[in-house]
Amino acid sequence: MSDLNLQRQKKGPKAKGKCDEEGAYGNLCDLLDVLRKKNANANGENMAKEQSRLRETDKNITEGQSRLKETGENMAKEQSRLRETVTNELKKSRNLNEVAGSLFNKIQRNLGAVGKLLDEVWKMNSSAQPLCDKSWKHYGLSCYYKSTKAEPLNFAKEDCEKNKAHLVIINGEDEMNFLRGFSENQYWWIGLRRVSGTWEWSDGTSYEMTPKFWGKGQPNNSSTKDHTGGQDCVQFSNEKGWDDRHCALKYKYICEKEIP
Ligand SMILES: [Ca+2]
Questions:
Q1: Cα 42 to ligand 1 centre (Å)
Q2: What distance in angstroms lies between residue 53's CA and the mean position of ligand 1's atoms?
Q3: pTM for the predicted model, two decimal places
């Protein structure tokens, strides 16, 4: 029996409501009613399916979130471990630097002592050849030369090199004390330069390892009316210590070479 006939049987001839008309209109109305209910059932089923899919999606999202949280936590732990490792390595490297710096200073002091001894021995032997060429001054294991003219840094550097020497490298306190006396209160270029923002001695001696004798407020890398940009070269005087200056400025210079 069709849904429509069943419904009409259940409802009976006296059924009240929208579809209580007899005949074609009543049948049509009943048919519409059945269709509406079927449609409602179909919608209900679709909604149930949709709800189920949504629940599944929600579950997947929750699981994904949980995995992400776990990954995030692992990454945070790994980051923390890495930070700790880097900190420890930095500490070790600083300690090594300190040890190396201390050794370097000891070596410098020993070399100074050897130089003085050499000087004493040389003085005792009056027939010995001078330790340094004429117009060069002996100190420690080196000979030092003071220029008579003021020149830009590049000229000074080349002039020292022509004499198989280099602009003076200040390795320690002893040598600096010697140079203070040697400098006669004038201004001199030394072999220290800023290269790409890092201070470097011209013979490759480590700047980090050597003691610094910067004057008050130096290095200040200042600009002047005539010279903009970096003060990348270093001048020293007994009175003011080291001062970074523009390399194009002219100063006298001190060359140094090792005792032959
Ligand atoms: Ca300066």
A1: 88
A2: 74
A3: 0.60
